[in-house]
Amino acid sequence: MATKILLVSEGSTFMVDAIAKNLTEGGFDVIKCEPIIKELKAYENDADIVLIYLGAYIENRYEDMVYLKDVCIEKEKIINVIGDKMEVSELKRYVPEGMIANYFSRPLDIKNMISVLQEVAEDADSYNRRKNILLVDDDATFLKTVKEWLSVKYRVTIVSSGMQAITYIAKNTPDLILLDYEMPVTSGPQVLEMIRSESATASIPVIFLTGKDDKASVTSVLALKPDGYILKSAGKEKLLEQIKNFFESKKAKTF
After folding, report:
1. Which three-class secondary structure state does DSSP give residue 9?
2. Domain ranges of the chain
3. Is residue 184 reached through a cis peptide bond, with omega within 30 degrees of 0 on the bond before it?
4. Residue 10 pLDDT > 90, yes or no?
5. Starting at the edge strand that comes first in sequence, how are the strands of the sheet with 206-210 ordered?
6. pLDDT at residue 31, rounded to an integer
């Protein structure tokens, strides 16, 4: 199956059409998209690789570019950019430099760009075969730390509240949810209850993250019948080991 690439540009110029044609000949399935929120929403789930063809329009598209940035963060899309130094500098007002995988300057060497994007596609394909973990916790520091630990081996999406988790799984199906037991507004147990009450999400594995290891607390956690629990104080190696063991045991049950 051809790798899908979202080509974001204002209008369909001769150069944009030439880029789309060469990408298609290079084995890509190209989806053209205007840099406006309405169109970005329509196509945001259709490709893992985003290629932005910059132009003068970038100066007046703050909300559109911020929306695109947020989508790429949430859905872990790979951003690549075609543009001159001034256009790229303007883009960096909206999109952090660290999010941009490759810059292609004009005049454009299309052959080189295709070669680089083919490598990106191979990496993306390998990355997308990783297990996807949804990490839910209201502690920003904990989220950042654990995501760094997990991202070496897994695809990780983070949200900071129970309702954000519910919103996410309404459109996505993670291989595992790591769910903070104690959260304000919507607690871990309430989130688990909502997940289990819907047939579309009931089978998603949920492991609780808890800061309490006394017998009464552990008993309360297990009474809700999650797929396991991990102590927040366990540390990196123990956490990774428990998640690895979970996926291995799940795989073994399929044979």
Report:
1. coil
2. 3-128, 132-253
3. no
4. yes
5. 155-159, 132-136, 176-180, 206-210, 229-231
6. 96
Angle of helix 110-128 relative to helix 14-25, nearest 10 degrees, comes to 50
3-128 and 132-253 in the same fold? yes
What distance lies between CA 32 and its chain's CA centroid? 21
Question: Confidence band (pLDDT; 50, 70, 90) for 71?
Answer: confident
Query: What are residue 215's phi and psi, to 5 degrees?
Result: -55, -45
CATH code at 132-253: 3.40.50.2300
Q: What H or E segment, with its residue span, contains residue 201?
A: none
Amino acid type, 18 = A
| Cα end-to-end distance, the chain, whole Å | 27
Across residues 169-190, what is the average pLDDT?
Answer: 90
- The HSE-up count of residue 225 (CA atoms within 13 Å, CB side) is 6
Those residues whose C-beta lies under 8 Å from the C-beta of residue 196, and which sit 6 or more positions away, are 202
**How large is the average pLDDT for residues 136-165?**
90
Give the model's confidence band at 255: pLDDT under 50 very low, under 70 low, under 90 confident, else very high: very low
The answer as to CATH 1.10.10.10 being correct for domain 3-128 is: no
